[in-house]
Every structure is written in C-alpha cells, then in structure tokens.
Design brief:
Number of strands: 16
Distance between the termini: 16 Å
CATH superfamily of the largest domain: Ribokinase
CATH topology of the largest domain: UDP-N-acetylmuramoyl-L-alanine:D-glutamate ligase
Strand content: 15-25%
Order of helices and strands: EHHHHEEEEEEHEHEEEHEHEHEHHHEE
Number of helices: 12
C-alpha cells in the first residue's frame, strides 16, 4: 500500500502557540531530540508540525494512530529530513520533504507499507510507555475526559475513571449525569467528577453535547461508553461525539451498542478512534453471531478495522489489536 500526505501551516501560528502555551505545547508535540535540534526556531518547529500532520494523513483510515509526539522528524546525514515512527509502525516506511514559502511551512509525505488487512498484532506489542521526567507534574501527563455511568451503573463510571488515573493520566475528569453526580463525587478521590445535563434521571442526553464537546477539547484523549445506558438521546449524543470530537476517543460498552444500532453504521471513524468490543459487542458491530466471531477472531478484527476505519481491540482470552 502507498499513500501521500500533504500539509501546510503558518509559521506565525506555531510561534503564537509557543508564546501562549510554552513548554506545554512543545512537550505535547515534539520529542526531546526534536526540541534539541529546533530550539525555539519557529520555522523549524513549523516544518516539523507540517511533516507530522502529513504523515498522520497518510495513515488516515488505516486503523493506525500516531500522536504527533510519536513521529520524530530530524535531519539525516545529508541534511534531508528523516522520519522515525516511535511505536507500532507495522512495517511502514515514510519519507518526507519540507519547504518554506511566504510564511508557510509545507510538507509532503510518502508512505509505503504492507496491506493493512494482512497485519494483526497481539495487544502487548503495541504498548510503549515513555520514561517520566523527574520534574514532572500532573499537567505533564495530560488530561483524560471520561463520559460514563447511568442510574444503576455508577460502578462502570467509577472503574473507567479510576482506570484512566491508574494508567498514568495526570488529570481525569469524569462526566456523569446530574442525578448520579453525588454518588461519584463521594466515591472518587483523585478523579474529578463533573455533572452534565441529563434527559432522564441518571441518563446523559444530547442536550449535553456542547458542554461535553468543550470538555473533550481540553483532553488528550476521551473515553465514552461504560454504563451510559440505552436512552435514545444518550445514543444520539454518543454518535455525534464519535464523529465530531477532535481528540482521540476510546469507545466501549454502550458506545459500541450505539454504533451498532445506528443508521450511520459502518461510518469510517478515523484512525484516532479505538473500539474495544468483547465478542458479543463485536458480533453486533459486524451484524453476525458470537460463534462466528469466536471461530475467526483474527478475521473479525481485521474486518471491523477495515469497515469502521478505526483501531479495533477485540477483547477475550487472546486480545487482538487490528
């Protein structure tokens, strides 16, 4: 498979981002080696931003997601930019070129890799945890926003929120329906419970869309689904967030049920969406039976990744990532 990606960014825009957010922006986007090379040179920073975006566009729809900081662009021996993919690159080879003109940094990227349908990884091989700086604080490790829980299913929200915290997030904000907020506020200590508008007792509805979207805009990643319930307004909210939220999303449990039931079924969600079905949820996503999923788990994971255009984590005794 071969793909081409192109991106352009204003040097002034990157300079403004550095001025406004300083090290927070730089550490979120660039590797230590890149920062050692670029310093605060806005043209060099903009060139690497454009190159990273071009590479990300090459992977769009493949089910492979690379955050900008996992794409390292540094000069090679002859001075031309070289790309290093930090993590699960699945045999990908990437070349980039960077140029500057009229205040813009422009990058093109060329990707070569084996056919995605032929590649499947056991989950542990895809996990890389970076070293933590000694002077780090909670702001260093990003924000996770979790939308979960409903009346009778507060435990799902609690487990999802605390799981995100234990996985290493610096800050976890748990969005829950107003009725169940007092339960989660009393239960959670490190996780910050936040009430959002409900359409029925304990059920978050589409009326909360704007407020939830604003919260997700502050996050490095969002989690949607555990224990949210099956209210139709809740499902409308899930579907719109799955399509429009800009941050990467992990979609689980009732979020998967909403996708499976949707008229937008098989919408290509993009490579910053991670679907985490168990065999029953996978059967609903693919319109088949649990027996069929279990008979060919690898084939089911490949098919779902291709049809939804997302990363699939098929849970079970042998969890698979496609």
């Amino acid at each position: 498979m071969q793909r081409i990606g192109v991106d352009a960014v204003s040097v002034e825009r990157i300079a403004l981002a550095v001025k406004r957010s300083g090290r927070g922006f730089l550490n979120k986007v660039y590797t230590p080696a890149e920062l050692a090379y670029t310093g605060t040179n806005s043209e060099r920073l903009a060139g690497r931003w454009a190159a990273k975006e071009a590479v990300i566009k090459c992977f769009d729809g493949t089910g492979i997601c690379f955050p900008r900081r996992r794409i390292e662009v540094l000069p090679g021996p002859a001075g031309a930019p070289r790309v290093r993919l930090l993590g699960d690159h699945r045999g990908a080879r990437v070349e980039v070129s960077i140029t500057h003109h009229s205040g813009l940094a422009v990058a093109t990227s060329h990707l070569e890799m084996p056919d995605i349908a032929d590649i499947l990884l056991p989950a542990p091989e895809a996990v890389i945890l970076p070293d933590r700086p000694r002077d780090a604080h909670k702001g260093t490790f990003g924000t996770v926003v979790v939308l979960a829980g409903s009346l009778g299913f507060t435990g799902a929200a609690y487990l999802a929120g605390t799981g995100a915290a234990r996985a290493g997030a610096g800050l976890v904000r748990l969005l829950v329906a107003e009725t169940i907020y007092p339960i989660l506020a009393a239960k959670c200590t490190e996780v910050m419970a936040t009430p959002v508008q409900e359409v029925a007792p304990g059920a978050v509805g589409h009326a909360a869309y704007d407020s939830v979207l604003r919260q997700l805009a502050t996050a490095e990643v969002g989690v949607i689904g555990p224990g949210l319930g099956r209210d139709r307004s809740t499902w409308r909210l899930i579907l719109d967030l799955a399509v429009h939220a800009e941050c990467p999303l992990v979609l689980d449990a009732d979020a998967l049920n909403a996708l499976a039931d949707s008229a937008r079924k098989k919408t290509r969600l993009g490579n910053n969406r991670i679907l985490t079905p168990h065999p029953g949820e996978m059967a609903r996503l693919l319109g088949t039976t649990i027996e069929a999923i279990q008979a060919d788990r690898a084939g089911a994971a490949r098919r779902a990744a291709k049809e939804w255009g997302a990363i699939i984590v098929l849970k079970g005794a042998h969890t698979l990532v496609a």
